[in-house]
């Protein structure tokens, strides 16, 4: 799995969750995770989760830390399983940073979301194209512009770029070890 | 996903990780997670992880809390992804219980293992048959009989049955919500 | 499998055979079969069967009983196999109703079509999207507006809603028992 | 799909439901349906349906008409769907023969079984190996030796070889048209 | 596998590489290889290989021999493997013809391309839709209009139609024997 | 793809074509190609190709250059396609070496076999397990002990180890470029 931190503000409007986005724009060929910072505003026509569309839930935030994972030749059940694992990794990584800072915020994961009490820290979606499964996961950097009660990295005093780079590395290691684990066992 | 707590001591020797074990023995038909308590001793001929076989690493413990997950018609990449998520759920659940108890042990997940510093709390394997992918995950109830430096639920003052029932429920909810998430999104 | 009888006239123009139609419009999440009554007229641009397009065969009827089946994460070979089975169930159900009425019409299935001698009772198509396989199956309620020699439920004195509800239930039972049958056998 | 009527008495003991049985014994390479007549007695160790094993239901008959279908590179969901369709074809074919004979027996299909009232006419199983999905379907030629209340072809005055050849041809046509139907539609 | 030589000049602009092109235009249903002669000019919007798009490499030639292979229900890994094999067959066939002519040109294959020293003889792409994998492969008939240093059939004194018909036949034989080879082996 | 030249005589008796052979014996984890020299004698019980078993064709040779390819999570259609491509690479590589030597032997590939006129240079089989597809390909080093008219590397004055190392490298490059080609195209 390749990783890339993109040192550029890019607005996320949902159109970035398309096959080969990383290859087309940053020359990242193959299974990958990329991250960047930027505003988020997803028009309903770009929303992939029909649940949000049906509930007319806007998805936005003035400043978020974005991740896009693209895995080729796996199905959406895998994609969603990885998405949940990703959320778990992000939560653990932030908790770890807060332990170091002796901060008191306590996060929990509910499906693909991370919360602190009733404050939502993140958004996420996973979907599928003919050739790959993709995950978008984004963490609030600030609370401005969010349509619900949110928590943000600023509240936690966490530098988004530092967090992003930790997570890129952790998820790369996790993905690679998952793949290895599928090639060293006897079948049942 | 069906769940079942088996109120009976069963020794785990690796042969339980076979297709339809839950259906054959407890009449659980379909995707399922079952749990029970019992000793663990896996002869090398039953080990599925060739890495352990090659390293001649014995796998045993006098008393462990066992889980077997069986998911039909999914591949091993999914199975291992779910296994990692399962480990994460177990770790979080134990951490949650310890917070309530104001206990100080701090756990972390490394791949499919849970540790406290250098003490190993759990063992796990995921493999595949023609029709299903299966996960075995077991947590030390005591430290007796383990071949490495271990941590156990007794150290943590956690009742295995209570933990098991929490996890059965959590994983059932997680699995069901993963499946739902694969059937409500527009493709990319 | 979820079922739903939609008590509303909806014109079928082929655009209803799209992924998540049931979820988007009737909040039916997951594998499902839905049914309703309405006119049918499919422009060539919406036809999925290229055989019909190449033969320039119009597909229409002033009043038909429509079914849409959506099965996730299965391929089109499964979808077409189920479609044939569905046609068989519809034929058997109508035959059963006619036996009760001591009616003389004799139906037979040919692939995905149901006939009485040279009179066509139904139309059907199965196709595939990235995430699901879908079947449209429709039975003439009247003979008006059909481009070929047809038979209709009115000829058979069958109330479409009663037939629809029987079939929804039968197909649900069949589908659920098919799924169960894939999870209780030893592999070969 | 290839078909073959095997003009030889062969006892079915469950071991015939193995990959490449038709190729190994009758040089039928590829997707196929073969049929023959012979006694049936399946030891529990050869039973593929764990439901029967758990219920300790013996499966036997002194004289049955056997079919084995083997389809490569499809999954068990397809296999079971085809099995149900096969049962439907057998039932319809027999009903058709009885109409000609002006016989009064009325058959119905329940899942993979064919009944006349409470008398069982057939047995069936579908399972999966690494490379193919296989179906065994057998119809009682006589009622001798069956462990439950049965109906047989002799009761219906149907010559098994004639029925077999009709069904081989019908299923071949059905299978070929299913495959064709997967290669002429636009995706959704 | 069906084959068809299309005795008509058709310009290739990339839009021909779409599912069911052979069925829609030449009534070839199923797995197929078709061939024809015509100019080639692919606008960037029709290019499937993002590598070419990113490199802004034009793809054209005034006169080329075109092949389109369509294989249903296989993945792109298979498609690309077959594409490489196809390139190998074309190269071998041309080499064979040149041996007969005692010609000195020596060809080699590099991935999906055929070269003579630094002169490129062919272009190719393989991609995937929901229901099929497709390959376009084209050989220069003349060197006019090509954007790079090329070799052409005219240089080799090879009649394109003769070559095309040889290759249609060779690839059909190869494909059919590959399929047969997947249905006559014991699994491991 | 990993490659390994095994500098040790190992007799090939068919049992080496088993999942994880490379990992178990040489610690090669994942998609791989390995090669070594040794005698070949495959008892019928170990033969995977039923065609050979049915024809009672012995497979042996006193000294052969063996290759085993193992690719995880791909089907047998892919495996056989790769096998044919592998045979093509071996043939081209030998032809290339002979051109340099100004040797006159002319080889051709027929399916998975390489011949010089009616003399057979190689044997091969591809099959499938639950988790991987595997290819065995072997080239005669000498003609001793072969049951049919053969050609061997000694006839061609080719050093087996040199050939093996060239092919390991070529196939690794080919495989890696195939995988890359599945992750850089727009779907159709």
Description:
The structure is a homohexamer of 188-residue chains. Chain A is an alpha+beta fold and 188 residues long. Chain A contains 5 helices and 8 strands; from the N terminus they run βαβαβαβββββαα. In chain A, the strands form 2 sheets. Chain A has a 5-stranded mixed beta sheet, with helices on one face. In chain A, strands 4-5-6 form a 3-stranded antiparallel beta sheet, with helices on one face. In chain A, strand 5 (113-116) and strand 6 (119-120) form a beta hairpin. In chain A, helix 3 (76-100) packs across helix 5 (160-181). The longest helix of chain A is centred in the middle third of the chain and has 25 residues, at 76-100. Chain A is globular and about 45 Å long. The two termini of chain A are 28 Å apart. The mean pLDDT of chain A is 96. Chains A and B meet through helix 3, strand 7 and helix 5 of A and helix 3, strand 7 and helix 5 of B.
User: How would you describe the shape of chain A?
Assistant: globular
Structural class of chain A: alpha+beta
Mean pLDDT of chain A: 96
What is the assembly state of the chains in this entry? homohexamer
Proportion of strand residues of chain A: 25-35%
Question: Biggest chain pair contact, residues each?
Answer: A-B, 46 and 46 residues
Extract low-pLDDT stretches of chain A. Answer: none
Tell me about the biggest sheet of chain A?
Answer: 5 strands, mixed
Q: What is the terminal separation of chain A in angstroms? A: 28 Å
Helix/strand order of chain A, N-terminal first: EHEHEHEEEEEHH
Helix share of residues of chain A? 25-40%
Strand line-up of the largest beta sheet of chain A: 1-2-3-8-7
The number of helical elements of chain A comes to 5
